[in-house]
Amino acid sequence: MTTVHVEGAWAPEPDYGPGSRTPDGIKMLAGLAGTRKRLNGCAAAAYAAMYANVDVITAYPIRPYTAIMMNLSQFIADGLLDAEYFVADGEHSQLSAAFGAGSCGARAFTGSSGVGVTYAYEMYSIISGARIPIQMSIADRTLDPPGDFGSEHTDALCTRDMGWLMGWAATPQEVFDKTLIAYAIGEDPRVLLPQMVVQDGYFVSHIAGEVEMPAAAQVDAYLPPYRLPFPLDPRRPVSHGPQIHPSQGPPLQLERARAMEDAIPVLREKTDAFGAAFGRHYAHFVEEYMLDDADIALVISGGHSVTCRAAIRLLRERGIKIGMARLMWIRPFPSDDLRAALRGVKAVGVVETNLGLGGASYGGILSLDVTTALYHLDGPRPLVTSFMAGLGGETVPMTEFDWMAGKLGQAVERGRVEKAAHWVGFED
Fold first, then answer.
1. What is the phi/psi pair of residue 21, to 5°?
2. Which of 81, 171, 219, 267 holds its CA 20 to 30 A away from the CA of 213?
3. How far is CA 329 from CA 123, 147, 387, in A?
4. Are 232 and 240 contacting, i.e. CB atoms less than 8 angstroms apart?
5. Is 58 helix (H, G, I), strand (E, B) or coil?
6. How far apart are CA 153 and CA 229, in angstroms?
7. Residue 330: which of 142, 153, 111 has the closest Cα?
């Protein structure tokens, strides 16, 4: 333990090292090392949080994310994890408690779904502005109305401009891995930003897949103990969130904007380091599928990309030169990587499982970022349209991807798109 000078006296520096795993928890993780376990997305997130040795968990139930907290509470009840488990009286309190824990030097983990995500909205800018890298696991769900509980990306995307790292996982394995990767990026001193690791409600959160379980020592080597540079501690007084003059605000906002930009190389570094450590290699920002010679392409994120990939294989068998660009992260948005992936493509369709009502496309949210990114492409730019699909938790079947490919083919033939947004299943 080192010492620091505090107001004329010497005081011990607090040690915020790991200590949440119990002997029984260590024994359990040792038994899991090197095995494959069938887990749904919610369970995968909970296991990853345990491997990450989280100190504080803040919970409030709302389906379909609730099973994440059910698993973690069971770990604690079984004596496997000695984390502080806080049941809040609502999502605003839930995020506030996680914020406080992270501010004091604890690795904090929380989550929500649907309207629960929006209920906590005030806290998102506060947490990122304070540069507290807590993590929020979201199993996304449609906002009310109609209250149909199905998966839709609008809940998380409502927060897209609040300074959180944000990305979708398409499988339980990705949920597990992305939980660790996101902590590693967000807690890096060059970044210090909170993270949202999002999975499609029900399609990923409640459908089981095989998840490779690492040794705890592997995770510890990849994800070192949380070390906030400026924790709240009475022995080292600091101020968080003071009221300031208007002229002091813009420099702080610029700093937060630069932190998001600075996260880009760190994200690449941590993703590569994860692949080297665990043998599972992910694209930094954009997963490219059959794009090398593609004339048309679909841009997509989340669990529906699994069906999209299968649809593209079938379309290729019919001679249609189509590919897929899957967005691994939405924030920071991968403009450079997307331009590189779609260079040479003639028409692009953005699959929108979200609502951006009244926006430039009068459809979804993602196409606005995609169009802006591609506008700055050197050389010929592809035509861009979007497809509203999978809303309200509907599946996006092969036939709908076939229909999208037909619309993109028509756009190439005409040299223009029919319109900025198509509502799939409601048009001929």
1. -75, 135
2. 267
3. 21, 27, 20
4. yes
5. strand
6. 33
7. 153
Task: Quick: pLDDT tens for 346-399.
Answer: 999 999 999 999 999 999 999 999 999 999 999 899 999 999 999 999 999 999
Token match 């592809």: residue?
Answer: 382
Average per-residue pLDDT for the chain? 93
| Residues 159, 164: Cα–Cα separation, whole Å | 8
Distance of CA 388 to the CA centre of its chain: 21
Identify the band that residue 422 occupies on the pLDDT scale cut at 50, 70 and 90: very high
pLDDT band at 147 (very low <50, low <70, confident <90, very high): confident
Q: Write down the pLDDT at residue 2.
A: 37
Residue 4: other Cβ atoms inside 10 A: 13
User: Burial letters for 264-299: b for 16+ Cβ neighbours within 10 Å, e otherwise?
Assistant: bebbeebbeebeeebeeeebbbbbbbbbeebbbbbb
| CA 66/CA 138 separation, integer angstroms | 10
Q: In what order do the strands lie in the sheet with 347-352?
A: 286-289, 322-327, 296-300, 347-352, 383-388, 421-423
3-state secondary structure of 387: strand
Q: Which of 110, 16, 107 has its CA nearest to residue 72? A: 110
Phi, psi (rounded to 5 degrees) for 153 = -85, 0
Contact 211, 169 (CB under 8 A): no
- Running DSSP on this structure, what letter comes out for residue 13? P
Find out whether 190 and 131 touch, Cβ atoms under 8 Å. no
Residue 13: is its pLDDT beyond 90? Answer: no
Q: How far is CA 327 from CA 212, 334, 335, in A?
A: 23, 8, 10
Distance from C-alpha of 19 to C-alpha of 287, rounded to nearest angstrom: 36
Six token digits for residue 176: 């597990």
- Give the H or E element holding residue 50: helix 41-51
Distance CA 231, CA 103 (A): 6
For 150-188, the three-class secondary structure string (H helix, E strand, C coil) is CCCCHHHHCCCCCCCEEEEECCHHHHHHHHHHHHHHHCC
Torsion over CA: 365, 374, 350, 164 (sign): negative
CB 421 within 8 A of CB 386: yes
**pTM exceeds 0.85:** yes
Helix (H, G, I), strand (E, B) or coil at 20: coil
pLDDT of residue 19: 56
Backbone dihedral angles phi then psi of residue 288, each to the nearest 5 degrees: -95, 135
CA 66 to chain centre: 17
